[in-house]
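Human: You know discrete backbone vocabularies at least as well as I do. Show me how you would write down a chain together with its backbone fold. No explanation is needed for now; the record alone will do.

Assistant:
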Amino acid sequence: MASHLPQPVGRQREVLYLPAHGKTVVLGTAGSGKTTLAIHRSLYLSNPSTKHGGPTLLVTFNRCLVIYMEHLAGTIQAPVDVRNFHHFARGYLSSRGKLPWGSICAPDERLRLIAQVVNEARQTGVQSTTLKRPAEFLDEEFQWIQQHGIVNANDYVNAERIGRSTARVARSERPGLFDMYTRYLDHRAHARKSYDWQDLASAVLREFKGDATKRMYRHVVIDEGQDFSPEMLRSLAAAIPQDGSLTFFGDVVQQIYGHRMSWRSAGLVNPKIWLFTENYRNTKQVARLALALAAMPDFPEDPDLVEPTAPVADGPPPALVPFSSESDERQRVISAATESARTGTVAILFRTRQHETKVRPYLPTGAKRLHRELDHWASGPGLFYGTYHSAKGLEFDTVFLPFLSEERWPHPPDVDAFGEHEAAIRGSRLLYVGITRARSSLVLTYTGQPTRLLPGDTELYRP
């Protein structure tokens, strides 16, 4: 299979050949070539003709990006192993005899168990404002507990929270909420589920601490690392020997899973930090809109934010197109996307799987869905569709972002569960991800009024 992998340029070459030991953090703006360099770095570290060469894990967050990376490189073979995190975690636990068949609680069952815990608490007279929240709020709070490796109520009460204002749980409410979390674990155990997808990383970390055997990988390279939880990063840091290396590539602006952390708390003590500011992907016009979005109030200041250098590529300004009805919007977007896909790669991205499912029957035959079961990446022009989450790390010649109305953004279920401010932050970060997937052409559409999350400067859009 032919390689589509661009060669490293500028500071990318410096990072590529950094020493093959210790921990390195590379923070880059969207389009700065982090995924490209993650592949090159993996190939360099695994080179058997070098003294440092050894088995290397190239790990990312979602399955689609794994397939895309394999496509870019042509073929990636041992000693480089390309996986998403949960594939790695399940493989390791299975190798240690700690993953019986059917022992992972599925997301739907997890929500059902959480709802059961809430109902039981209400029936027994428990008084807590958190019981008035939707089950999705408790689900997310339990995730936060698991993803930060918190194992007792005292640590939860004392934990400092970053970036969660309206959704924050008051310290006085935390003991009661942690009690509900332990009840959830009891219900899960009664259902014969040892894990759910949120605490696999903690299970891996615990197992590594008692594992004296030789590590399978000498090097670990993480792509899209901003979406890894602290426990995921700690477990990956534990997966390498003392003479090994861990290289982290990430962009805090594209963080859509809410894992803001210090490097030390994530197991990366005093890492060497490199910044990539050059944008090699987007045109000036697309990048200008992304920068304006990141400058809006719903993007809180972050000490790790990398200010991008404006790209030199030129192109048309993004289009912001109104429609009188969502059915007309859907029809026109599909028609325009299908036409554009004759000569380039095109993606239609959606806020939720539910919206994707409603549109799917109207898409042309041959449109490729971005999802975890994707098993190959087609070369050449074509139409892709999926959620913003599934498109993380990917890029397309043209991107369509439909249904950006004020009624849908911020996402109403997020507003109900986490409050207006937190929902706006989540929506803004998702929009940033969607916008920066476009290499040259970007079309945003809405019915009624556009979301307030988009910059209002008309000069950013086509007249």
